[in-house]
Write a structure and sequence with these properties.
With about 400 residues, the chain is an alpha+beta fold. The strands form 4 sheets. Strands 2-1-13-12-11-10-9 form a 7-stranded antiparallel β-sheet, sandwiched between helices. It has a 3-stranded mixed β-sheet with strand order 7-6-14, with no helix packed on it. A two-stranded antiparallel ribbon has the order 3-8. The protein has a domain of about 220 residues: DD-peptidase/beta-lactamase superfamily (Beta-lactamase, 3-Layer(aba) Sandwich). The protein starts with 5 loop residues before the first helix and ends with a helix. It has 10 helices and 14 strands. It is globular. InterPro entries: Beta-lactam-related, Beta-lactam/transpept-like, Diverse_Enzym_Activities.
Length: about 400
């Protein structure tokens, strides 16, 4: 049953498009029973002017992470891997990790053995020590000075990075879930795309979600736009490698807002697909949504590459935790989200939330760099607030 005022929600989403603050947006909200709202406004590309639509294919970027984590947790359920065993048993390249302790006077990286083994739990919670060049200056320098390819190139050597911290000691946002994708492949004997398609996408009807954008989907794909310091927007040539040496589990998927809402509904329904198929066991969904990092704080991002990301703190002043693999707000949030809800985002300003207490979730998806765009974040907050207000009125 629709609970939102469609006209009011349409107006809310259309306003920043008409003001030329964003090129286009797709937004959806859902509860356990189905979609409560869906809308698409603006254009897929400023260069072409093709209208945004509900079936527009967008780059999920790091919204990929939750999907890959779900695949890994299916294998945990099957007893194929334990959360706290050394992952070097499965991925020999991670058996003896090295920590980057800076650089000597000549610029040579200072490496030492990690204090403890990396586990799947470390990888799923971004406490493995692996970082991203976008948010860690030492990682950025190491990659640049040692010729490590960018992740979007999907070269196996892209993963050849030392740790920025010892496993288990801090939340360091990075390439951990790319390694989780390698775990899924090693245990399943399938490519990451084949595994997720069979065990997640098909059961949920996520028919437009994939790493490789085939021609029919390419015709519906939105372009990425770069926002310049003066606020103007430019269409840019941006695509994850379509001839990958590895599937980028941390951010390589493309798909539609409707596909992602199908995933959110599965999580709201305790792991069940619409036809009743168990994608995950209820206890696994519960586990994924609990704090898995103890006293460590998570979620606040301070970039070193401002062209790609802005400073971002989704819940200022609030203790934030991480599950397997979601950001968790520990108190009720101002827009109506319950404490203990799950969320994350994608680099091109795509955002989702899953409120398992109120059984409500949603996505707001654009294709704009840098991440943490204030205009998109305002829209995301207003959209969420409107959904919760309507839910309260319907109660």
């Amino acid at each position: 049953m629709t609970i939102v005022d469609v006209q009011a929600m349409d107006s809310l989403l259309r306003e920043p498009v008409d003001a030329k603050e964003i090129p286009g947006v797709v937004a959806m909200a859902a509860d356990r029973g189905g979609r409560l709202y869906e809308g698409a406004f603006g254009v897929r590309s400023l260069a072409t002017g093709v209208p945004m639509s509900l079936d527009t294919v967008l780059w999920y970027a790091s919204m990929t992470k939750a999907l890959v984590a779900t695949g890994a947790m299916q294998l945990v359920e099957q007893g194929r891997v334990a959360l706290d065993e050394p992952i070097g048993r499965i991925i020999p390249a991670l058996a003896a990790p090295q920590v980057l302790d800076g650089f000597d006077a000549a610029g040579k990286p200072l490496l030492r053995p990690a204090k403890r083994p990396i586990t799947l739990r470390h990888l799923l919670t971004h406490t493995s020590g692996f970082g991203y060049d976008i948010w860690n200056a030492s990682v950025e320098r190491y990659m640049r000075e040692n010729g490590v390819p960018l992740l979007v190139d999907c070269k196996l050597s892209s993963l050849g990075q030392p740790l920025a911290a010892d496993p288990g000691e801090k939340w360091e946002y990075g390439i951990s879930i790319d390694w989780v994708g390698q775990v899924v492949e090693a245990l399943s004997g399938q490519s990451l795309e084949a595994y997720l398609t069979e065990h997640l996408f098909k059961p949920l009807g996520m028919n437009d979600t994939a790493f490789i954008v085939h021609p029919e989907r390419r015709a519906r794909r939105a372009d990425v736009h770069q926002r310049h310091p003066d606020g103007s927007l430019e269409t840019i040539d941006h695509e994850i490698s379509q001839e990958p040496e590895f599937f980028m589990g941390g951010g390589g998927l493309y798909g539609t807002a409707g596909d992602y809402i199908a995933y959110i509904r599965m999580m709201l329904n305790d792991g069940r697909a619409p036809d009743g198929t168990a994608v995950l066991q209820p206890e696994t969904v519960d586990l994924m949504g609990r704090n898995a990092i103890g006293d460590i704080e998570a979620g606040v991002l301070r970039p070193v590459l401002p062209k790609l990301a802005n400073d971002t703190d989704f819940f200022p002043g609030m203790s934030q935790k991480w599950g397997l693999s979601f950001l968790i707000n520990t108190a009720d949030a101002p827009n109506g989200r319950s404490a203990g809800s799950l969320t994350w985002a994608g680099l091109a300003n795509c955002y989702f939330w899953i409120d398992r207490t109120k059984r409500l979730g949603g996505v707001v998806m654009t294709q704009i760099l840098p991440f943490g765009d204030p205009r998109v974040l305002r829209l995301y907050g207003a959209f969420e607030q409107q959904v919760y207000r309507r839910l309260a009125k319907a109660a």
